[in-house]
Amino acid sequence: MSKPGLLLVDDDPLIRESLGYLLRSHFDVSAAESRSEAMGLLEDRAARPSLALVDLGLPPYPHEPTEGFALVPELLALDPDMRILVLSGQSEKANVLHAMSLGAADFIPKPCDPQLLKSRLDHQILLYEATRREPQQVADSIEGESPAMQLLRAQIAQFASAQFPVLIEGESGTGKELVASQLHRQSSRSGEPYIPVNCAAFSSELLTSQLFGHAKGAFTGATREHTGFFEEAGGGTLFLDEIGEMSLELQSNLLRVIESGEYYRVGESRPRQAHARIIAATNKDLLETSRNGNFREDLYYRLSVLSIKTPSLRERGEDRLRLLEHFQRLYHGTVAPFQLDDAARDAWLAYDFPGNVRELRNVMIRLGTKHPGQTINRDMLEGDFECQTYAARDPFGADQPSAEEQLKDGKFCLDDHVQQIEWRYIQAALGMSDGNLSRAAKLLNVNRTTLYSKIQRLEERLG
Predict the structure, then answer these.
(1) Which range has the top average pLDDT, 45-59, 219-233, 420-434?
(2) Is the domain of 360 the same as that of 276?
């Protein structure tokens, strides 16, 4: 069995040599010392590596993160499924957040323990392999028989062949990307390109260039002309995910395309025609966002001519069990099967799954890995339902005694109380962020390394 590919980009030859030696037993390692060398390596290869381990400080600006930041979206443009881990000593909070917003899957500060690095890479390769398998196996169907899902399928069939934009709204993890793909597949445009774009993964300037293209010499580093996504999509579909993250300036450009069908490459004055259908998605209340001045109201009404809301798992009843069976079939051969006893089944149906379908899938993977071939009981299941478990111990819950009553008891410990609150919110953030430590830290507004230290401390304390 061939080893997964790993692109290692670092300007320090000692780090390239030592990490290459460490990782070659598990990965097919290719090394580069600069952004241009890395892209040159990949352009000459038909097969892209599964993973990339990228330093931020690369020549010609080794003391600045600019080259590393530029490399992340360039790699994702070659392969959107590539898992990019940033390994850098420039681990200030702003750099971590920006790297994650560009699409990095993880950020590991230097120096890093070698075994920790290997475990993080192993985790990412599992996610990469799962992502590569999923589209072929799930693109033909949207799972679930609840009334909410029957309505969703009916809306997709009704809107698929319309020429107007579609706005898909819903919580994170509810399958907005799958709905967009189905709208394209069931449309008369299905033979044309389908191009998904995560608007949150690019800076405003880079997203403008990616959408509309640019002329040679349009800006520093534009050594050749670049075809944008609108041109590449042709008469197909352009899916703009996380549309609520788009800058106001770029929203104006997008509105012009929708209204007139025209756009301009960066650095050109000649208008070009756009023929692609636009599908947009967001997990925000976009109407409220527009009323707050953070999204153009005229663009909102243009995008929402046709709108679809993806239901949360809270609205889907026994679809929770159908999805469990679906993902067990999907990951057959990778994750060992297991069964739920009656009490665990009731707990599964009662759990809200705040991370929705994505969280359900992750819980299934963890259970199959931890308890292969076993019958899962309620106690075994609750370990993977931390959000609910700790919510039951919510010190602010209605069923909890008042602060005065707890103090009168004589056994109250403020440190324990505060730690339980911290643990509850950490678990909720991890559930909402699909277990991604960097995104959870962003939700909690703390530094990623601070969050990691808190988790270690609280796990030891709370057991």
Answers:
(1) 45-59
(2) no
